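Sequence only, no structure available. Ideas?
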Amino acid sequence: MTALRTRGAWLAIAVGAVLVVAVGVAAAGAFGGCEKTATKAGRPSAAVTATAFGSVGYVTAKTFAQTVPRRVADTWGEIQAREFVFDSFQRYGYFPRLQEFIARGKDGRVHSGNIIAVKEGDSAKQLIVGAHYDSAAVGQGYADNATGIGLLLETAARLKRQPTPYTIMFVAFGAEEQGDVGSRYYVSRLGPVERKATLGMINLDAPAGGPRISVTSAPDGPTWLRDDVLAAAQAQGLEVASGPAGDGLPAGVARTPGDDDPFATLGIATATFTSGAWDDSGAGIAARDTVRYIDGRFPGRVKQQLRQLSRLLETLLTSKLETHR
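Reply:
I predicted one. C-alpha cells follow.
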C-alpha cells in the first residue's frame, strides 16, 4: 500500500478521525430511541456493536462523500477513496488486500483496484457483500455510493467478532461507473473451488437516499437470495420492496446492470439493495448527489434507511439462509 500513501498521509488521519467521530456520535444516540448503550471497548469494531444500527454507516458515508467527493476511476480521487476504505478495514481489525487491475472500461483502459476483507465463518461456504467506491465526475457521490460504502464498513465492524455460519468476503469494488469493471475482474479471478463455495452476492448500490429501499436480483441469476432478503425484512417489519416490474422483466429483477451481474452469469444468486433516484425530474441527478442537497431536501431519510439496512444485514449474515440450489 506504499503507493497509496505517498500523497495521502492526511487521509489516514481523516479516516481515524471519522471512525472516532462515528462511534462517538452513535454512542451519543444519533438516532432517537437507540436499542443499545455504548460501552468502552479496546477496538473500534467492538465499539460499533454497542451503537445504534446505521449510526456509524451514516457518519462514515457523509465523511467519505465530503472528504473525497470525486472518485472517478483511474484518478487520484479514486486512489484517495481506496485508501479511505483500506484504512477503515484495518482500523476495524481486518487484514485487507488490494486486488489491482488494468482492464477496459467504457472510456478505455482503466487502472483501479478492489479492496477485499475476509470475515471467517463456521464453514468454507461464502457470501460476498460488495459496494463500489468510485463515483461520477460531478457531485459528491453521496447516495451513489458513499451510503453503500458506509453500510459495508459498518457491517464489517459489527460482524468482526460475531459468529457467522458462512465466511463473508467484504469487497469494495473499483471502476463500477466504467461498466462494473472491478466486479468483472474479481469474478474472473475466482477459481473453480471458490466459485463452488460462493453461495451468493449481496450488492449495496445506492442503498440509501432514494424514496424507498428495494431489493432486486439480476436477470440471469437465481432469485432465492433476493427472496430470503424480502422474507427477513418482512419478519422484522421493515419496508423493503421488491423492485417494480418493467422493460419486459418480472418484478424483483433489475433493469440496469450492476456489480451483481458478473456473479449472476456464473449462476450465483444475487440481491442488490438500492433506493432509486431521489429526484423525479431525472435531469442532473449526479450533480445533486451531495450531502447538502439530499440531507437538506429529505432530512432524516438516509439515517433511517441505513438504520433499517444495517439491522437487516446483520440478521441475514448471522443466519443460515434458505438456499434453493
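Residues 1-10, 25-42, 245-250 have pLDDT under 50 and may be disordered.
Hope that gets you unstuck.
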